[in-house]
Amino acid sequence: MRILLLSDIHGNLEALEACLSAAPPHDSVVNLGDIVGYGASPNEVTDRSRALGSVFVRGNHDKACAGLEGLEYFNPIAAWAALWTQQVLTPENYEWLRALPSGPLPIGQVESPAAKIDGEDAAAMPVYAVHGSPADEDEYIITLHDALDVLMRSSVRLTFFGHTHVQGGFSLNSADGALVLNPSYVTKTNAEQIDFSLDPATRYLINPGSVGQPRDGDWRSAFALFDSAAYAVTFFRVPYNVESAQKRIYEAKLPDRLALRLKEGR
Ligand code: ZN
User: What CATH architecture applies to the domain 2-264?
Assistant: First the structure.
């Protein structure tokens, strides 16, 4: 089973289209939330996401833009964008976002290798999708300390998360301890990918990165592919028409900062 992992699209249609064009063949799509908020194409991105027939986990911006949560925890720019999004969403998309499930959601199983780990059959281990963290959909897993807190409390081998807009993740096993996974690319301009083999005896938290508003210093759109039979993840970065996404933000009279940050990857 090859699962395309998309997260934090944030109403950026140009970035989403670039990812879908670059994505290798896959069997299903898992969307880790924050489909809308910040970007100027919330309806187009929601329509496109819905048409992919994905498994969806809601994000905090999806909740806020669908009126499920107050905006008091948002900074002024995020709150402005959420209010704007609420106003432009079609009633159908608004209701669809409102009905999204919260994580963690099981998205499949590890298919191989058939090893016993801690007395469990590794090949039957479920894989989960969350927006923030398994314990709290709004919690950020930013530091190794944050990740350790999650990895040590749970026996789940593999969880995919989003919310931080930082591609990569964290791992924990008895031999190497806790590690940060940071894909290191060669360029800042080209389409690139990095293959990463997973070890069945290691627990992982893996973030495919943000499609529509990366914050890891790389402006290119980020996504990942999980191959459950090979037990491997491939991280991708693809350039997209950022000027077009910025122009839509200016035309919508959303805060300039939301356009400027796209090119900075911050
Ligand atoms: Zn987000």
Answer: 4-Layer Sandwich (3.60)
